[in-house]
């Protein structure tokens, strides 16, 4: 990455909402896992190790941000999935196998899509609530103006 790409990425991260950051983490983990899988397929051990290390770091960060008090069972379930994924990344390294990487990539993609849908649903609900709250104000303004 050149200097301008790094600056762009830093700005993107600095301006992102928590929800956008979550999706960016998943995107990064998916990208590194896919790249590790391709490295295994072409026999590039150095790139495989680099990408697995990066995917491991992202998944570990996702795991570290879980709030088990607020998240309850969902946080516990995500924690278990992240542990499984980290074990699969280790298996891919030790066995030099693509199959564990395929499983991790599929799980990450499924989780990302689930989070995206949840974020979109909450955003729509908030917009609907704010629109409903704004309607009485608009009606009141119209009555006063008439």
Could you describe the 3D structure shown?
With 146 residues, the protein is mainly alpha-helical. The protein contains five helices and no strands. The longest helix has 47 residues, at 99-145. It is elongated. 18% of the residues are buried. Residues 138-146 have low confidence and may be disordered.
A few lines on this structure:
This protein is mainly α. Helices cover 91% and strands 0% of the residues.
N-to-C span: 61 Å
Unreliable parts:
138-146
- State the oligomer: single chain
* Main beta-sheet annotation: none
> Per DSSP, what share of the residues sits in E-state strands of 2 or more residues?
under 5%
Element pattern in H and E: HHHHH
Structural class: mainly alpha
Calculate the mean pLDDT score and round it. 85
Helix content: over 70%
Secondary structure: number of strands: 0
Q: How would you sum up the global shape?
A: elongated
Count of individual helical segments = 5
